[in-house]
């Protein structure tokens, strides 16, 4: 329990840190990059499109870049040489037009991509996490050692005490009772039984409470899909693939055609040097082979660079049968959009640092206590959301300073039928 | 008024000891295993007990210690753009069943239709639905549906074949046929289908189209032809009628277009203290229908007398002649109705299928000027088109071997033709017989080929319910089985290369003028002319005199008559017979499920033998009667129905189906269609009969005495006169009873004074706070909350001071519901709407017999009056569901706090916390909690684990389970459940508002029952919002009519009822003294 608590605290810290970072550095740029560009571009590396760090220095002019991003096809059609060369270099892959982006927004994106530095090899946060975990387990060990020593000491003192009493009795001529071994001593037996009963009860109860929970569950998936490579190194926005999280109760596993938006171009894993893919068992994974597996599911012919279609023209795709990691019981209603869109909760708060996981595991216990605790502590977006204008009492209290914030609990967030119906 | 006596059944009225036993023993079943006989008498009871204990512990451990299963999450390979998993899509479509019509919106989740709602854009049905519409989604997932086309052998089995092979065989056979080819269909609303049939007739000039309706309206069509020169039905406007006279037409339940009429009727029945006006409804009927129950003035007559009543009414209207029936009440009704009709805005409808009677009705309507005011001849209704004589002629021709082929679509004459056997014999003499039935019904079994049609939720199509008013049908799901649209089959056999879908699209885009208009029409689901419906009368040109002479020439038989009728749920049979939701829906009047029976008046039952009273009233076992009529004999159990004419017995249609129709339909009741006769022009649905008592008894599952209130006053009823003279009577009565608790004893007694809200807003506050002084400055009045909404000081005082517990103020939303007893017709749409929305289990007949039905919402039906005199019977319906008490008795007694209260006023039920003690159900004064005695939905998790009765296993397979609402937990065995106020909808509505950053709009969330209701008697919303409909009803517009059931026990229900108001002279009380007075008056 303590460990999981420590983990969630850590996750919280990381989230807050990440949030603060994004808030201070290039607020618009990063968000815009992640929602518009990250699917095809990486700041540091060539992906579907070229690496974007320093792009403003490469291209003919800033104005050219604005025009290009807003409508690249028009620039190519205008006969611009740089544009046509670029188009040819990238296998005539057209860039999506972004007519909605303003010049300022584009500049913010470029500023952000220029600000990105290659990641350092050793991640401080992760190290801190492991050391924190070690600390707790270490102190536990020390406590149990001390307890054992104390118990042994008590036992020895008890023996010594009774031995001395015998000697004293002998000396005083008081007859000693017949000595019985300690393991036949009724007091000792009774104490032991009671102790075992308590410990076993504790163990069984805990086990029963934990039943059906799967924290740290990390099943093997049909494709070795590394979230670290996608969401971490290449900074693809979580919501690009899990688009349902904003709109639906399900975050939604993307269909293969979503994967193919990028993987039509990216057919091999080139990051093995910086980040070799290794399973939890220590087996090395060939990223390129995994992409080939995707092609099989998606019905994509990498040689012809075209979909394989049946006689009716439908793509011959089969869904990937992923193993579900985050399982809630059927009697729990959970809605992603409530948390992501309304509550503005970061994905990592519940799912852990997915961007650091090659293989995803369940980082939170997903127990009711865990949910309820969060609902008790988390403040809702009270002032910013007009829905809550009906809570006149709370608004008055906030105004008068009687109250600093409104938690989920205050608006009924731990009532049974908010989640069970 | 509380001194009146209401009773659910005779057993309650007579307070028999057997009834008291039933009432006392709420959970009829003893424990499911017999503990007394074996365990305690065993030689070693202690050891056996330990064995049981050990086994169950070990079994539980084994079952629980299994590892978590590995679950897969499988995304779409290629996700359709419009589907987001977990978010429902809605498609406007059209419900069509023969000539029955409803504009609907189909809710689909991840590609599965799971719920139908009314389409509010339609000016015809205006968003209303019926129980059948609500239940039709279950028919889509019916296991008994045909899964492929094929040829049928002698035993009625289908040998699978392909459409191509069948097309070849059938076209070859048709091509060589010189004798006439008949297409027999039910009434067709679809203009494109009519085109397709015409194309077929063009290809085969010897083809003929016969329209056949199992319950026929030929008499009306023929009478209208004679009276107005058009063989058509007009549009009726019950909303514009001030006086409604119905002679045997159950227009709220089954007659012609009950959804439309209920909606219209409801408009005329909305009454408040400020506007104390309502329509006046006279009903003459032989049996007891829901229209009769809603009527202000009801009298009974024999079915054969209906013509005489029509003539008497005609005479009274035209010449003022006094009627001379032996029944005083009938005479009074005719005289009064005639007087009211003459005041204008009258409407007379009649359920008879006799052309002469309908001609007289036309004459009356013409004489009182109904044409052009309440009857509209500018816009015809197309609901029924069948002419009975055509069908009779076809049967003759078939038997004479003069027919080359018969194609049957949507009809089942072997079952529902008056002489089904003759039709079957004829069918055997026809070389090519094709059924397009969706299941192996009685007729399909006698055909040579079956080419199953789609369900309407799988089809493209259209409907023209009224001339010029169109409605489009679009599929909510791809066809589940190898079925093909009936129109596609006809097109294929006419040699056309286009499919019906293309043809249909072409037709509508051309007609509407382009793709954009077509898309808009498809999205709206309806195409209607702009503005109000045009209105026109028609000149009566019929021969009333001849019709009257014909009616009088026909001798009314003496003695007993039997009539057949349609039940609100099952109708004439069709696919409904196999719909477990409808089968288990208690009939509004008899409260019986799963069977048909002989409805008998209490007096007749007594005449049959005094000993019958015991056996007929309390026991489930009902005495079987043998009804002999029309050369037929039917033995069915008798059910005593107060309000039946003493010389009439009635039997419902739609039962006695073949086993191949489906599991639910098999072995329920007997077929009553053989009792129908043909009079040479039209079918007649009543005939002379004799009844005989038999020695047999038969179980009928009747829910009327389940959940008894044991005679407590829970209904308030007034006549219109009483109400308009003293609208505050109910308030005064409530205050008289409750004011003692409405204030604190040391306070000035009078918080409950009338008009208290004017000065009393701060009354309690002043007493408590002490410091508030209006002169110094008024405390800020909150914009929200019940006080701001106008709650009276009395109500507030009772709420806060009537208890020792502290009161909790809901800070945000406080949900509340209002149910109008005057508008409620008892039709049951809400019951089925709730069942569809909330995954409510069907339990089957054996368990209904044990009072284990699961409906979260039931409609309690109360009679008042004297059982022996059917004309004194008055009936009230009261929808009863969890009252969501703010001071709920169930919550206090739950040992595990599985049921508790939310800050929004919901009485919450956490199923996974419930351990099944049933304490809550025992302590609920409203008896609205239901215990899951069995695993109704997942019993197939072990093989061979289905139940003895077999009927309700239909929810235990993957096909039927597709209808389940994924947002509502499917409850398992051993937990309690009850109405949740559709909390999933509330949460969804709140979430949508939060996402858009705005407060919830009033009316944005509707409960399933509210949405299904055709007469708008349920209002739901946030009581804390002073502008909400519910707050207005409760605290302003209808405050004079508001009451809470069992208010005196201070449960503080969040559902209020509005008193029943009847536009009549006397409310029958069933009380000796009052009834004596009542008797003297008639």
Question: Care to describe what's here?
Answer:
The complex is a heterodimer of chains A (421) and B (1082). By secondary structure, chain A is mainly alpha-helical. Chain A has four domains: 2-115, Cytochrome Bc1 Complex, Chain D, domain 2 (Orthogonal Bundle); 124-210; 236-327, no CATH class; 341-418, no CATH class. Chain A has helices at residues 2-24, 27-37, 55-58, 62-70, 72-77, 81-89, 103-115, 124-172, 186-210, 227-233, 238-241, 256-263, 287-298, 336-342, 347-351, 368-377, 392-400; strands at 300-301, 306-307, 322-323. Chain A has a two-stranded antiparallel ribbon. In chain A, β1 (300-301) and β2 form a beta hairpin. In chain A, α12 crosses α13 (287-298). Chain A is elongated and about 120 Å long. Residues 9-27 and 122-134 of chain A have low confidence and may be disordered. Chain B is of the alpha/beta class. Chain B folds into five domains: 89-140, N-terminal domain of TfIIb (Single Sheet); 150-216 and 386-524, Rossmann fold; 232-381, Dimethylsulfoxide Reductase, domain 2; 558-702, Barwin-like endoglucanases (Beta Barrel); 716-1082, Alpha-Beta Plaits, CATH 3.30.70. The longest helix of chain B is centred in the N-terminal third of the chain and has 20 residues, at 45-64. Classes of the chains: A mainly alpha (421), B alpha/beta (1082). At the A-B interface, α12, β3, α14 and α17 of A face β1 and α33 of B.
SS summary, helix count of chain A: 17
Poorly predicted sequence stretches spanning 5 or more consecutive residues of chain B: 750-781, 1077-1082
Q: Strand arrangement, largest sheet of chain A?
A: 1-2
Order of SSEs of chain A? HHHHHHHHHHHHHEEEHHHH
DSSP E strands of chain A, number: 3
Helical segment count of chain B: 36
Give the oligomer, counting copies of the same chain as homo and different chains as hetero. Answer: heterodimer
Query: What is the number of strand segments of chain B?
Result: 43
The main β sheet of chain B shows up as: 7 strands, mixed
Per CATH, the architecture of the largest domain in chain B is: 2-Layer Sandwich
* Radius of gyration of chain A (Å): 31 Å
N/C terminus separation of chain B: 22 Å
CATH class category of the largest domain in chain A: Mainly Alpha
Rough shape of chain A? elongated
What's the CATH topology name of the largest domain in chain A? Cytochrome Bc1 Complex, Chain D, domain 2
Name of the CATH class of the largest domain in chain B:
Alpha Beta
How many domains is the backbone of chain A divided into?
4
CATH architecture of the largest domain in chain A: Orthogonal Bundle
């Amino acid at each position: 329990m303590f460990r999981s608590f420590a983990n969630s605290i850590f996750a919280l810290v990381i989230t807050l840190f990440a949030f603060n970072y994004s808030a201070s550095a290039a607020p618009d740029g990063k968000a815009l990059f992640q929602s518009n560009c990250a699917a095809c571009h990486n700041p540091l590396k060539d992906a579907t499109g070229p690496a974007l760090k320093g792009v403003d220095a490469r291209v003919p002019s800033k104005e050219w870049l604005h025009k290009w991003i807003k409508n690249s096809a028009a620039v190519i059609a205008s006969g611009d040489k740089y544009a046509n060369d670029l188009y040819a270099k990238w296998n005539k892959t057209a860039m999506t037009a972004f007519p909605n982006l303003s010049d300022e927004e584009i500049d913010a994106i470029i500023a952000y991509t220029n600000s990105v530095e290659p990641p350092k090899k050793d991640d401080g946060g992760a190290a801190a996490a492991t050391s924190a975990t070690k600390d707790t387990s270490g102190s536990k060990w020390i406590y149990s050692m001390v307890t054992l020593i104390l118990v042994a000491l008590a036992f020895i003192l008890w023996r010594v005490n009774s031995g001395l009493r015998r000697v004293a009795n002998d000396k005083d001529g008081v007859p000693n009772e017949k000595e019985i071994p300690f393991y036949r001593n009724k007091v000792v037996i009774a104490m032991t039984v009671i102790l075992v009963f308590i410990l076993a009860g504790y163990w069984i109860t805990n086990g029963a409470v934990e039943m059906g929970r799967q924290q740290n569950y990390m099943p093997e998936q049909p494709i070795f899909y590394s979230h670290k490579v996608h969401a971490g190194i290449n900074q693809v926005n979580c919501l690009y693939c899990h688009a349902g999280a904003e709109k639906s109760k399900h975050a939604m596993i993307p269909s293969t055609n979503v994967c193919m938006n990028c993987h039509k171009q990216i057919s091999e894993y080139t990051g093995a040097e910086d980040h070799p893919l290794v399973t939890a068992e220590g087996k090395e994974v060939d990223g390129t082979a995994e992409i080939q597996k995707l092609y099989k599911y998606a019905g994509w012919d990498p040689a012809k660079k075209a979909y394989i279609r049946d006689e009716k023209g439908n793509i011959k795709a089969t869904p990937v049968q992923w193993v579900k990691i985050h399982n809630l019981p059927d009697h729990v209603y959970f809605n992603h959009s409530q948390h992501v869109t309304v509550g503005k909760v970061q994905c990592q708060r519940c799912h852990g640092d997915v961007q650091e996981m090659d293989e995803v595991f369940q980082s939170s216990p997903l127990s009711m206590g865990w949910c309820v605790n969060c609902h008790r502590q988390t403040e809702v977006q009270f002032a910013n959301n007009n829905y809550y204008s009906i809570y006149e009492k709370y608004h008055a209290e906030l105004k008068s300073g009687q109250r600093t914030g409104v938690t989920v609990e205050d608006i009924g967030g731990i009532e049974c039928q908010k989640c069970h119906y | 008024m509380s001194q009146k006596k209401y009773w659910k059944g005779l057993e309650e009225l007579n307070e028999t000891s057997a009834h008291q036993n039933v009432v006392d023993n709420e959970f009829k079943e003893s424990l499911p295993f017999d503990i007394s006989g074996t365990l305690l008498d065993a030689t070693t009871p202690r050891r056996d007990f330990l064995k049981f204990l050990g086994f169950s512990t070990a079994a539980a451990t084994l079952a629980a210690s299994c590892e978590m299963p590995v679950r897969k999450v499988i995304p779409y390979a290629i996700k359709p753009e419009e589907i987001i998993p977990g978010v429902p899509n809605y498609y406007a479509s059209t419900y069509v069943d023969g000539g029955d019509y409803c504009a609907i919106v189909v809710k689909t989740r991840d590609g599965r239709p799971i719920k139908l709602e009314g389409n509010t854009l339609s000016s015809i049905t205006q968003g209303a639905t019926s129980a059948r519409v609500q239940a039709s989604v279950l028919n889509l997932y019916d296991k008994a549906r045909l899964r492929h086309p094929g040829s049928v052998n002698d035993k009625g089995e289908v040998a699978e074949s392909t459409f191509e092979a069948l097309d070849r065989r059938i076209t070859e056979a048709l091509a060589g046929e010189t004798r006439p080819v008949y297409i027999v269909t039910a009434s067709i609303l679809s203009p494109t289908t009519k085109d397709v049939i015409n194309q077929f007739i063009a290809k085969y000039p010897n083809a003929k189209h016969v329209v056949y309706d199992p319950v026929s309206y030929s008499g009306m069509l023929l009478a209208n032809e004679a009276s107005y020169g058009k063989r058509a039905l007009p549009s009726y406007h019950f909303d514009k009628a001030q006086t409604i006279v119905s002679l045997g037409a159950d227009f709220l339940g089954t007659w012609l277009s009950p959804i439309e009429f209920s909606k219209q009727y409801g408009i005329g029945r909305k009454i408040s203290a400020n506007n104390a006006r309502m329509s006046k409804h006279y009903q003459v009927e032989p049996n007891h229908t829901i229209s009769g129950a809603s009527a202000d003035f009801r009298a009974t007559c024999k079915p054969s007398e209906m013509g005489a009543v029509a003539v008497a009414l005609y005479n009274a209207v035209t010449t003022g002649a006094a009627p001379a029936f032996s029944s005083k009440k009938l005479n009074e009704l005719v005289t009064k109705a005639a007087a009211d009709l003459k005041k204008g805005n009258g409407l007379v409808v009649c359920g008879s299928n006799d052309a002469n009677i309908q001609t007289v009705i036309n004459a009356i309507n013409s004489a009182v000027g109904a044409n052009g005011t309440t009857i509209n001849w500018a816009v015809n209704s197309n609901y029924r088109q069948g002419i009975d004589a055509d069908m009779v002629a076809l049967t003759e021709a078939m038997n004479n071997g003069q027919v080359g082929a018969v194609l049957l679509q949507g009809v089942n004459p072997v079952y529902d033709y008056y002489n089904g056997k003759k039709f079957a014999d004829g069918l055997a003499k026809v070389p090519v017989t094709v059924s397009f039935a969706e299941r192996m019904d009685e007729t399909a079994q006698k055909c040579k080929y079956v080419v199953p049609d789609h369900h309407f939720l799988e089809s493209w199509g259209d409907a023209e319910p009224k001339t010029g008013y169109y409605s489009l049908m679009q599929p909510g799901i791809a066809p589940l089985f190898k079925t093909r649209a009936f129109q596609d089959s006809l097109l294929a056999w006419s040699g056309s290369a286009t499919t019906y879908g293309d043809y249909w699209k072409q037709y509508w885009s051309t007609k509407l003028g382009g793709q954009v208009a077509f898309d808009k029409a498809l999205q709206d689901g309806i195409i209607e002319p702009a503005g109000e419906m045009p209105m026109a009368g028609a000149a009566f040109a019929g021969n009333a005199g001849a019709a009257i002479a014909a009616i009088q020439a026909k001798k009314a038989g003496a003695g007993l008559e039997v009539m057949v009728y349609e039940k609100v749920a099952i109708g004439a049979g069709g696919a409904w017979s196999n719909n477990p939701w409808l089968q288990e829906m208690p009939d509004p009047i008899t409260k019986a499920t799963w069977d048909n029976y002989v409805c008998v008046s209490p007096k007749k039952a007594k005449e049959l033998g005094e000993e019958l009273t015991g056996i007929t009233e309390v026991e489930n076992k009902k005495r079987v009667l043998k009804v002999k009529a029309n050369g037929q004999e039917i033995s069915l159990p008798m059910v005593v129905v107060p309000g039946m004419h003493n010389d009439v017995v009635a039997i419902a249609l739609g039962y006695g189906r073949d086993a191949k129709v489906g599991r639910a339909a098999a072995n329920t009741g007997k077929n009553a269609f053989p009792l129908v006769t043909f009079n040479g022009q039209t079918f007649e649905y009543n005939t002379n009969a004799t009844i005989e008592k038999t020695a047999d008894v038969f179980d009928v599952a009747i829910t009327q005495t389940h959940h008894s209130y044991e005679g407590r006053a829970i209904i308030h009823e007034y006549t219109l006169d009483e109400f308009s003279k003293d609208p505050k009577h109910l308030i005064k009565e409530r205050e008289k009873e409750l004011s003692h608790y409405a204030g604190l004893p040391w306070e000035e007694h009078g918080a409950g004074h009338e008009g208290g809200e004017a000065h009393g807003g701060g009354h309690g506050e002043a007493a408590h706070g002490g410091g508030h002084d209006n002169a110094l400055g008024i405390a800020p009045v909150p914009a929200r909350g019940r006080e701001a909404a106008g709650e009276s000081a009395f109500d507030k005082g009772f709420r806060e001071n009537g208890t020792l517990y502290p009161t909790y103020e809901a800070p945000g939303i406080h949900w509340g519901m209002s149910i109008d007893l005057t508008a409620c017709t008892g039709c049951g749409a809400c019951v089925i709407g709730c069942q569809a929305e909330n995954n409510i289990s069907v339990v089957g007949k054996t368990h209904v017999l044990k009072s284990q039905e699961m409906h979260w919402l039931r409609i309690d039906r109360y009679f008042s009056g004297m059982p022996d005199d059917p004309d004194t019977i008055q009936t009230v319906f009261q929808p009863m569901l969890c009252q969501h008490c703010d001071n709920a008795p169930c919550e206090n007694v739950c040992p595990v706090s599985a049921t508790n209260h939310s800050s929004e006023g919901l009485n919450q039920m956490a199923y996974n916390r419930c351990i099944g003690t049933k304490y809550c159900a025992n302590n609920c004064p409203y008896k609205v909690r239901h215990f899951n005695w069995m695993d109704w939905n997942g019993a197939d998790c072990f093989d061979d684990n289905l139940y003895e009765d077999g009927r309700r296993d239909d929810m235990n397979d993957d096909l039927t389970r597709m209808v389940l609402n994924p947002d509502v937990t499917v409850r398992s065995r051993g937990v309690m459940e009850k109405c949740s106020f559709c909390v999933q909808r509330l949460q969804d509505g709140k979430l949508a508002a939060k996402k858009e950053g705005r407060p919830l709009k009033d009316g944005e969330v509707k409960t399933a029952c509210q949405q299904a209701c055709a007469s708008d008697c349920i209002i739901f919303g946030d009581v804390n919002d002073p502008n909400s409909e519910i707050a207005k009803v409760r605290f302003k517009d209808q405050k004079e009519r508001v009451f809470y059931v069992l208010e005196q026990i201070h449960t503080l229900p969040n559902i209020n009822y509005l008193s029943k108001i009847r536009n009549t002279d006397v409310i029958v009380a069933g009380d000796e003294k009052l009834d004596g007075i009542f008797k003297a008056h008639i």
